[in-house]
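quick q for whoever's on today - can somebody do inverse folding on this one?? i tried earlier but teh output was garbage lol. tokens:
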């Protein structure tokens, strides 16, 4: 047992080498998102998930996450493969500097920030396993403003992601930061001054591997 009160504590490590993991991230608040995505990828790879079995996609904002996760999983189930030429599973993300033919075409322009490429992102899933995703990580960062917008979106996305995982049976890791201030976001993305806080994306990567492995046992 860990001596700290909060957090995951000391977790058993799981072998992710047979898993296929999806990540869908929002592009709003891209500095936070890039760091969180990096953290997630870091632990996925450290747990043995093969880079070619990690598929990363983006959507404009957090509100779009539930539908994107649902479609990403369904496409992997139905086709059992990476679709050539524009299917949801085959499209590259903005953050990866690839084409933006899929969910990113839902009405938003490619923002300047979306051109950022997180340092540790090297590949996406083309050429990897053809199996349906074992787990999908949804990453977003909502920052409270002066209207009720934050409350409505936080609630809708939380409920939507839970619904997707219960309806599809695929574990959906809740990588949505619901932040009262930007500072809270920097801390949770490991970008605080002095870099003392840990990157929550790392926990999300571990959770995806643990759930992916356990789900295979659940049948
Ligand atoms: C519109 C909006 C605002 C104001 N703030 C955020 C935010 O902090 N984080 C985020 O992920 N998305 C934000 N969005 C965009 C919405 O999630 C959504 O993309 C748009 O309302 C279009 O459906």
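ok took a stab at it. sequence:
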């Amino acid at each position: 047992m860990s001596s700290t009160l909060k957090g995951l504590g000391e977790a058993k490590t799981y072998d992710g080498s047979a898993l296929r993991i999806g990540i869908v991230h929002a592009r709003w608040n891209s500095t936070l998102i890039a760091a969180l995505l990096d953290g997630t990828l870091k632990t996925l790879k450290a747990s043995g998930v093969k880079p070619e079995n990690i598929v990363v996609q983006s959507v404009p904002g957090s509100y779009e996450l539930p539908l994107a996760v649902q479609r990403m999983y369904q496409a992997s189930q139905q086709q059992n493969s990476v679709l050539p030429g524009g299917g949801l599973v085959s499209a590259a993300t903005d953050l990866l500097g690839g084409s933006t033919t899929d969910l990113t075409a839902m009405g938003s322009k490619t923002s300047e920030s979306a051109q950022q490429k997180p340092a540790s992102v090297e590949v996406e899933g083309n050429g990897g396993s053809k199996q349906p995703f074992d787990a999908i990580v949804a990453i977003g960062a909502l920052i409270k403003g002066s209207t009720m917008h934050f409350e409505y979106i936080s609630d809708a996305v939380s409920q939507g992601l839970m619904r997707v995982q219960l309806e599809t049976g695929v574990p959906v890791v809740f990588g949505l930061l619901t932040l009262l201030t930007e500072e809270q976001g920097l801390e949770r993305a490991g970008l605080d001054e002095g870099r003392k806080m840990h990157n929550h994306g790392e926990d999300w990567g571990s959770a995806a591997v643990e759930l992916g492995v356990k789900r295979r046992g659940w049948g």
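fwiw The two ends are 29 Å apart (CA to CA). also The domain at 21-218 is CATH 3.40.50.960 (Rossmann fold). so keep that in mind when u check it
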